[in-house]
């Protein structure tokens, strides 16, 4: 099982596609070291995220507790405080680190509301490389404003010897947003084809499977059904800053339990989790994020291997591209079927003196997540 631990909703970016920074948590209420120590071992990918996880003063201790419990430990960061990750990477060079990067200097800094963000994260990743980091990379949220730079950012990552993870605009309780729509779905989807082809041309099998993941992103951008059924709550789960465990980070009606009050075994075997798994089975949201898609791509028999469908697609199209051919995207994707988006302008907060909306009384789930339902189509 994969697990994401959202350590905090505090954040020092002001992204247009994620309003966590407008809803910061009180550090005194954030999931404690004692609670995290209750997690069992044996997780596959264990991702520490936020908000911005480097704002937790005890991040190094969190890593000491969680690192032995997972096959792969990952830290998702905005990259603005790379020096806080330096001692962690020196101690655990195989920890996977991804810094959010949304394009070139102007585009990244505008979308993310970051002062000198681009320069700080590029220099920071280089610093972690020099410190011995072995699995470093950028993470890119595809949207109308940056999709023209997608292949260039992939090539920049390759030139630096680091990875590129991709996702797209999404609505979710984690992001406190329900208006993350594309303005021109067809244009954005067609632009992602360039990345799929570039990844298939690469010599790294990891990139070939990322190409399949990005094929799924094209479906998502157009508003189509997921390529593979979701396995939230069974193959992956999320812990929020209040120690609540959720099947996914999208629907706020998929609870599993609370790690501060229960053991992990109690949570997994609870009636709450059973009811949630039933809702996941019937879920019609078209989520396709790294966590949700990666786990769904895995074989039910050999978890480290891919399912036959993705494997066959990868082998066929890799061979085709290697022989000078082109991926026939129209064979896989119905470009005649495009969902309409409401034309709601997304805003950027770059340079604005924004005050966080910290609400002291957030003792119930309704107070923590006032948006009740989320629309992803
Ligand atoms: S498809 Fe449904 S259950 Fe799965 S991650 Fe999305 S909202 Fe959650």
Automatic annotation (TrEMBL):
Q: Which UniProt keywords apply?
A: Iron, Iron-sulfur, Metal-binding, S-adenosyl-L-methionine
Stored InterPro entries: 4Fe4S-binding_SPASM_dom, Aldolase_TIM, Radical_SAM_PqqE_MftC-like, rSAM, rSAM_sf
State if S-adenosyl-L-methionine is listed as a keyword: yes
Please name the SUPFAM superfamilies in this protein's record: Radical SAM enzymes (SSF102114)
Q: Which Pfam families match?
A: Radical_SAM (PF04055), SPASM (PF13186)
Where in this chain does the record put each Radical SAM core domain?
A: 5-156
MF annotations from Gene Ontology: catalytic activity; iron-sulfur cluster binding; metal ion binding
User: Which CDD domains does this one have?
Assistant: Radical_SAM, SPASM
Which residue numbers delimit the 4Fe4S-binding SPASM domain?
A: 230-287
Tell me the cofactors it needs: [4Fe-4S] cluster
Q: Indicate whether Iron appears among the record's keywords.
A: yes
**What is this protein's record name?**
Radical SAM protein
Q: What organism is recorded for this protein?
A: Phenylobacterium soli
